[in-house]
Amino acid sequence: MGNLQEEKDLFNNVAISARRFEESPFIDRHDTSKMVRGVYAGRFFAIYAGEDYLEKYWLLRRKAVIFDVAEKPVEISGPDAVPFLDKVLTRRISTMNEGRGYYALACTPQGGIFMDGVVFKLAENRFWYVQADGPFEDWLSALSTGFDVTISDPHSRVLQIQGPASIAIMNAASGGAIDESMRYFRSGFFDIGGQTLYVSRTGFTNELGFEIYCDGANTDHLALWDHLMAAGEPHGMEFSSTRAMTIRRIEGGILGNMTDMDPSMTPYEAGLGAFVDLEKGDFVGRDALLDADRRTLLLGLTCDGATPSSGSEIIDGDIVVGQITAGIPSPTLGLGVGYARFAKPGDWVGREMKLRLPDGSTHASQIVDLPFFDKEHQIVRGLDRTIP
Predict the structure, then answer these.
(1) What is the pTM of this model?
(2) How far apart are CA 245 and CA 368, in angstroms?
(3) Over the stretch 188-222, which tens digit does the pLDDT of each residue have?
(4) What's the CATH code, domain 295-388?
């Protein structure tokens, strides 16, 4: 089951009981009668709010937007927090410094990707893993036998402020404490409008940006929202549903767990082998990954005549060789782009293929490396400040 958020998903909805899912504590500030909610990590979030998504996209690229996202921090604490995370995650945690964030994967014993997210070291023996969609808290609890650790839910809702004006906005919101010196994937506690909150220079757009983590019931969520909106108003910041985020994350080569990758795919097949440290000692999935094929199966596809959509087939000659996991129209490139998952490794990059959409139509396409542009990640690191 994927969390697609393609345009067709805005009209493919069902009524569902809301009792099992968490509503956003910020909903009173951005609810509309046109809102379409998605469910991610057991939480509601707005995948559409009746806005002009193209207008919000360009606002994200040129100024800033605030997203109310559903990613879920899980706390891992206790004397064995470090060896436990070294056992569960594919990256080395023992050398991690406080105030640092790592993108990190958790694999199944068979080497498939179970979860991806960002792990932060908040203090000695206290970590947060900000998970993607899926039952990661249960997975951690099941693997914690023999370790002196506590797995808990800090009930932290996350806001993202993304776009080139985000540093100026966070500087104002923090009374000058956050500035250009805060580097990519760094984090810490800051006073944001009189509330002590955890802030990281990360995001899900590959634009310059920050994430603000609430402190459960200790946070006055509506006061926080109002404070951030006041800080962002002089810079043109507005709220956006995740439609603009989905477009930008696919352009930027950010993968979605259980949509673009899943337990049937290894980190190498997903193009994420750089986040696997086979030299750090034993971890879940290591034995399987030692002998795994290192070639990538997940690449990019561009199409000048149509927008790829999930389930579309990729055809080489007369043979179906792969399918699209998710696709969007790229406003920056003026093309349809999508993730192409191939059934077998091959020399696919640079090849011309046929794209067959679910409606049966076929279109010329090309296979490319990811991301689709800004391949050196200059934008997200603040090194390219060119405004499109």
Answers:
(1) 0.94
(2) 21
(3) 999 999 999 999 999 999 999 999 999 999 999 99
(4) 2.40.30.110
